[in-house]
Amino acid sequence: MDHGNTRFGCDRKMKSAVILGIESSCDDTSAAIVRDGMLLSNVIANQQIHAAYGGVVPELASRAHQQNIVPVVSEALKRAKVDKSELSAVAFTRGPGLLGSLLVGTSFAKGLAQSLNIPIIDVNHLQGHVLAHFINDDKQDRQKPKFPFLCLLVSGGNSQIICVDDFFKMKIIGQTIDDAAGEAFDKCAKVMGLPYPGGPHVDKLAKTGNPTKFVFSKPNIKDYNYSFSGLKTSFLYFLRDKMAKNENFITENINDLCASLQATVVDILMKKLISAANDLNIKEIALAGGVSANSALRQTFVDYGEKLKWNVFIPPFEYTTDNAAMIATAGYFKYLKNDFCEITEVPFARVEM
Ligand code: KG4
C-alpha cells in the first residue's frame, strides 16, 4: 500500500536506491545493505546468552538487541562501503515477533531515518522469509520461484504454508495451531539434554541414526494446518517411561532418537505441503525459515520435488535463519512502490499478513 508519504518522493528516481534493512524480531540482531536490489552486506549478531536458559528469554533478548544494534548497523555500512548519508530508506521488521525485541529495531530505524530525513519501510517478518528467495548477491545467480508458488515457512516461531501470488500478495493457507516445527525440535532436544537451539544438534546426531527405530505420534489436524504439541508430549512421555527402566536410555539411543524425531517432523510437514500443492495444482514450491536448514527436510523436499515434478527452491543456509538481507530485499521492493510507513506505526507481536 502507498502510505502517501510523498515528501520523500522528489528526486528518488534519479539516484540509486540504497536500503538499510534491520531485523530484530527474536534473538538475532541483523543489519544489511541492498543497493538497487543487490545485497552488499549482511551482518548478524547471535545472542549466546539464551543457551544457559534453554530458550529465548524475551527481556534478555531486547537488552542484547540494544547493545548490538549500533555496532551491527555500523559494521553493515562499513562492509558495504556505504556512508549513512547515502541511504535512501530504512526498512525494519515490524512483526510478528517478541515485542521488546521488535521495539529496539523499530525505534532505531525511526530515529536513524528521522535524523537523515529519509523514509521508513515496515516489513512483515514472514514476508521477509518468503522473499529471501529473491535476495541477489554476488555468490551465484540463483533461480527464483515464479508466481504463484507455495512456500513452506518453518522456523522457531512459525510453521505455515503460504500461497504467494506476488511479492506482497501472500495468503497463509495453513499454519500450526500450537507449537512451531522449530519449537518441537528445540523442546524435544532440551528433554534429551542437548544445548539450545536444539534443531541443528538433532540434525547432526540424526545423520548416523535409524529414522524408523522409534515411532512417535502424528497429529490428525484438518485442512493444511499443523500441530506439534502432541508430538512433543508423546516424546516426553516415551522418554520418561524408557528412562524409568534404563537410566542410560537417552545416551545409548541418542542418534536413533534424533533420527526418528526428525523423520516424524519432516513427514508431518511434507504431507500437508503435498496435499496443498496437489489441491491447488501448483508446482513451484519453496522452503523458507530456520528449519529449512534441516538436512533431512531439504533432502525429502528435493526427493518429492523429483517425484511430483515440482520446481523446488531452497534458500542458501545464511538466508534461512533470521537475517536482515531478506528485510532489506523486501524493503527494496516496497521502496520501488513508494510503500513507506508512517513514523507513528508500532510493532506487532502476532501473525498478520
Ligand atoms: O528462522 P529462525 O532463525 O528464527 C525464528 O524466526 O524462529 O529459526 C530458528 C529455528 C530454531 O528452532 C532452530 O532449532 C531451527 O530453526 N533450526 C533447525 C536447524 N537449524 C535451525 N532445526 C532443525 N534442523 C536444523 N538444521
Please sum up the structure shown.
This protein is of the alpha/beta class and 353 residues long. The protein has helices at residues 58-80, 99-116, 125-131, 181-191, 199-206, 229-245, 249-280, 295-307, 325-336; strands spanning 18-23, 28-35, 38-46, 89-95, 120-124, 149-154, 159-166, 169-175, 284-288, 311-313.
Notes on the structure:
The chain is an alpha/beta fold and 353 residues long. The chain contains nine helices and ten strands. The chain has helices spanning 58-80, 99-116, 125-131, 181-191, 199-206, 229-245, 249-280, 295-307, 325-336, and strands at residues 18-23, 28-35, 38-46, 89-95, 120-124, 149-154, 159-166, 169-175, 284-288, 311-313. It has a five-stranded mixed beta sheet, sandwiched between helices. β9, α8 and β10 (311-313) form a beta-alpha-beta unit. The longest helix has 32 residues, at 249-280. 5'-O-[(R)-(carboxyoxy)(hydroxy)phosphoryl]adenosine binds next to α4 and α5.
